[in-house]
Design a protein that fits this description.
The chain is mainly alpha-helical and about 170 residues long. The protein contains seven helices and two strands; from the N terminus they run ααββααααα. It has a two-stranded antiparallel sheet with strand order 1-2. The longest helix has 25 residues. The chain is elongated and about 50 Å long.
Amino acid sequence: WLHAGFLESAPASKMSKSRPSSAIFVHDSKEEIKKKISSAYCKPKDISNNPVLEYCKEIIFRSSKEFKVERPAKFGGDLFFHNYETLEDSFKSGSLHPQDLKNAAADHLDLLIKPIRDHFENNKKANSLYEFVKSQNITTYKNYMILQMSTKVITNLLEMKLVFGVVCSFFPLS
């Protein structure tokens, strides 16, 4: 799962694996990612407690040198950001609409997650682990820790040379 602050409709609600709708998982489809990001708290011009900006700062800009926001010409056309500070300034000034930010963030997150998701869906050994992880109904922190400590999961992760947690980078799979 990806953790970057909050992903709820109110700023006081923290992101949690125990609420699957408030976290992005590596097995989420593009549509699921878009739906979760679209429902995230993102008040216009408000840069505090903004989960979408947090994803941009902590995940997207750490893995990409450019953040493209696609929008129709009648709304000002596409925007390109080469660092987080200019993105934040644009959002704070109101020249970047929350929905445009959400759409771009969802697209960029999917680009990061897609290779991982594809590997788990297409590699037979990885798919077995993928299906196991997807089938787990993680409803409490305790259950999550039990799952994380599972010998089968840890053994398979080590064999596939994957690093989980915040999915910003991963080792090439052989």
